[in-house]
Amino acid sequence: MRLRLDLMALIPILWLLSACAGEQSALDPRGPHAEHLARLFWIFLAVCSFVWIAVMVVLLIGTLRRTLPRPNPLSLDPAQERRSTLVVGGAVAATVLTMIALTAISYLSQRHVFAREKAAVTIKVTGLQWWWDVRYEADSPDQTVTTANEIHVPVGEPVTVKLAATDVIHSFWVPSLFGKQDLIPGQDNEIQFTASRPGVYRGQCAEFCGFQHAHMGLLVIALPPAEFQAWLKSQTAPASPPPDALQARGSEIFAAKACIMCHTIRGTSAGSRVGPDLTHFASRKTIASATLEMSRGNIAAWVVDPQGIKPGTNMPNVSIAPDELDPLVSYLAGLR
Questions:
Q1: pTM as predicted
Q2: Cα 126 to chain center, whole Å?
Q3: Which own/partner pairs from 274-278 qualify as long-range (CB within 8 Å, at least 24 positions apart)?
Q4: Domain 121-236: assigned CATH number
Q5: Average pLDDT, integer, range 170-177
């Protein structure tokens, strides 16, 4: 019985520790910038914990200590006064030195985190309510890649991300790879990071930006350099023609509906920049800025009722007849 109670007492501790790892945790760093920030966190935590424990110990001693009655309460004990002065003076000096040390560590860390080197890849990320426009810059316009809500990067190579916003202030944050950086309308910011190992790392807008702020996520997918180059090359290609009659019908429905007024599908007549580029839509892992996993069922749910899934989003409810839904979903699911 005692063993069972002990194990039950460990459950809350294990539950809390589980939050320190995973695809979206600043305490599970997967890159040099995130590792440096994690070390800084543990240093601050250790120092602050030591100070808190020392204060609690002194408070406990002062509370439990029994003071002997004095014949004259107004009389002073010179020796005790000197000791008290030394203790208070030492505490003040220790506090000042601790604050100076933590400030210096923080300043030096910023120099490390914001250091720049020649980037292997340069990406411009624009924050909008409530999704991320991602554009890979290239010397030749035909090599420029545009996608949304997912960032693919090569492992072990520095990546520069230029940040912009078109509506309100957003904040770009992928905890496992780097710290936060704001996207401010009219002001371009920049961040650089390196992913040290392959994986999928979830990010989030960390600045309240409106009704669907909590559903403004993104994924950073770190690939070995060869796989990244293959992915980048595939993304430069236009959309493949529909391979069968069902998808061809879906393409016609897409062009006849309001979809064409907001989205781009390279290789077709759809060329609007209001919403995300859908040229390789089905190659992504999620829909609606990491709100839903990519699947035919979720594509159908999103197309039929985006306001029901993500209220306030700029995508309107488009009237789609029952016999139009399957061809349209098949077409979208084939955009790879």
A1: 0.82
A2: 14
A3: 274/314, 275/314, 275/315, 276/131, 276/133, 276/147, 276/148, 276/149, 277/133, 277/146, 277/147, 277/148, 278/332, 278/335
A4: 2.60.40.420
A5: 94
